[in-house]
Amino acid sequence: MSDDEVKTSGVHGDHSDETSSLIGEQSAGELATAAAKDNFATLAEPHDDRSWFVLHTYSGYEDNVARNLEQRIESMGMEDKIFQVVVPRERKIRVKNGKRQTIEERLFPGYVMVEMVVTEDSWYVVRNTPNVTGFVGSGTTPTPIAPEEVKRLLSKMGDDEPKYKIDVTAGDLVKIMDGPFKDFDGKISEVNDSKGTVKVLVNVFGRETPVELDYLQIRKEL
Question: Pairing mode, if any, of strands 163-166 and 89-96?
Fold first, then answer.
């Protein structure tokens, strides 16, 4: 989407490039994610006038917004206009203190996706949900997400193979904790999130030599 489409109705201020690329715990959000995955096949063939839109929320209130909106949809009888509410997430493997943990991380903090038909009534129900600050769109009109972008996001959320997440980046100093180069100090030259590996430059016989290691084999030096 173009940059001028990343204005939030009802909110003053700019948003980051990451959020503009969007148009870029057991909880209501996780349940919504599961529901979106179950209905993913039907998204390939959009029907009636429904589309996916993005809501801007206060950061940290995404799950609260999803839960409150779902309650409002039911209590106000809007099931025929507002169909799904999703907090976009993806599974990641975090390596910390030598241990792997699988976590769910929000793809776009401060944003919630909603599938709906925009009418005066449905707009009112969504826009006036507590902690919703506005629709992402151009001016006062909500702008739907392109179908291909919806498919990409839901496919990413439905990926059963979690990605790795580690708190080191290129240039960080680390100590090797295991393997042939145990106790060597080195510098991170490359991080491969998909494989869970890093390349570390270590000094071998006076020359910097790249060594590929698993995340668990290193410790970040403070």
Answer: parallel
Q: What are the structural domains of the chain?
A: 3-165 (3.30.70.940), 167-220 (2.30.30.30)
User: What are the CB-based long-range contacts (under 8 Å, 24+) for 183-190?
Assistant: 185/221, 186/211
Diameter of the chain measured on Cα atoms: 73
Cα separation, 175 vs 129, whole angstroms: 49
- As a whole number of angstroms, the distance between CA 45 and CA 76 comes to 28
Query: What pTM was estimated for this model as a whole?
Result: 0.54
* DSSP secondary structure letters along 82-126: EEEEE--EEEEEEEETTEEEEEEEESSTTEEEEEE---HHHHHHH
Instruction: Say if CB 186 and CB 176 are below 8 A apart.
Output: yes
Amino acid at 222: L
Residue 147 CB neighbours (<10 A): 14
Give 138-164 pLDDT, tens digit per residue.
666 789 999 888 888 877 776 656 666
- Separation between Cα atoms, residue 15 and residue 135, nearest integer Å: 13
52: closest CA among 77, 25, 88? 88
Distance CA 11, CA 67 (A): 22
